[in-house]
Amino acid sequence: MRNKDLFNQEMENKWLKIASDQLVGRKIVAVHYMSKEEKEDYGWYKRPLVIKLDDGNSIFPSVDEEGNDGGVMFTYHPSNPVLPTL
Asked: Please, which pLDDT band fits residue 7 given cuts at 50, 70 and 90?
């Protein structure tokens, strides 16, 4: 395995562990669209869906890793493949 491939695999493993620790076993207790005030606090134009978890944490999509705007969520649900921003 090349050094770059090893680095990429290590990064994937690192972030997969972080995501797993935060999300696996959690229950969704509520969903709502980000409020207009929260959207403005982030300096965003779009309001994404926010998923609230049973440990008090919430997750929501962004268009990129820098948090430049709210993002859509794609699903594998056959009748509703996209949860849009508002």
From this structure: confident
